[in-house]
Amino acid sequence: MENKNILIGSDHAGYELKLKVIEHLKELGYTPIDVGNDSLESCDYPIFANRLCEGIKEGKAPLGILVCGTGIGMSLVANKHRGIRAACCSDTFSARLTREHNDANVLCFGSRVVGMGLAFDLVDNFLSAEYQGGKHAKRVDMITAVENGNILK
């Protein structure tokens, strides 16, 4: 990947794990761009998911990582954005295949679901995978069609 910028965000539940993932990203040679939250104080996760997705759409980074308690809330918000394909993952196989098959551009996971070691493995698998295109391109195009309001039959 040419652009080594990566957006990262969390809510209060994901804050501490996000900080560890930021350090891991730096060790891998990436330039993390933190979109917040910046404390353990309770906050609303949709704000930070929205910031991250807007950053991707503005071209600040090609990929993003969102961390909350389960990863589910963040992925729900992220997937409301046109052009964002967010996957909530808690296993390395899914983290790799969502890039390879779904061309996902946002990885979501939960600090209450995965520990630090698994979080690093999820990030590593997500970032090292590349979209394979081919037969998967038709399906990604279908996702985009649905996103644009077209009904598939």
Provide a descriptive summary of the structure in words.
The protein has helices at 15-27, 45-57, 72-78, 92-102, 116-128, 135-147; strands spanning 5-10, 31-34, 63-68, 86-88, 106-110. It is an alpha/beta fold and 153 residues long. α4 (92-102) runs parallel beside α5 (116-128). It is globular.
State mean pLDDT (0 to 100 scale). Answer: 96
Strand-and-helix sequence, N→C? EHEHEHEHEHH
Biggest beta sheet attributes: 5 strands, parallel
Shape: globular
Helix content: 40-55%
Specify Rg, calculated over alpha carbons: 15 Å
Task: Summarize, please.
This protein has 153 residues and is α/β, with parallel strands linked by helices. The chain has 6 helices and 5 strands. The radius of gyration is 15 Å and the shape is globular.
SSE blueprint and pairings:
Elements: E1 5-10, H1 15-27, E2 31-34, H2 45-57, E3 63-68, H3 72-78, E4 86-88, H4 92-102, E5 106-110, H5 116-128, H6 135-147
Properties at a glance:
five-stranded parallel β-sheet; alpha/beta; 153 residues; 6 helices; single chain; globular; 46% helix
